[in-house]
Amino acid sequence: MHLKDGWTLEEALQESRRLGIQYGIAANCGVGFPISDDKGAREFLATMKGHLVFVGMQAEGREWVKTFSPEVISEFDYVITDAMTFTDDRGKRMRIWLDDEVGEISDKQQFMDVIVDRTVGVLNDEPIDIFVNPTFLPTALAADYDALWTQERMGKVIEAAKKNRVAIEINNRYRIPGSGFIKLARQAGLKFAFGTNNENSKIGRSEYCFQMANECSLEGRHIFMPALDGEKPIQRRLKAAKSAK
Question: May I ask the CATH class of domain 9-244?
Answer without folding.
Answer: alpha beta
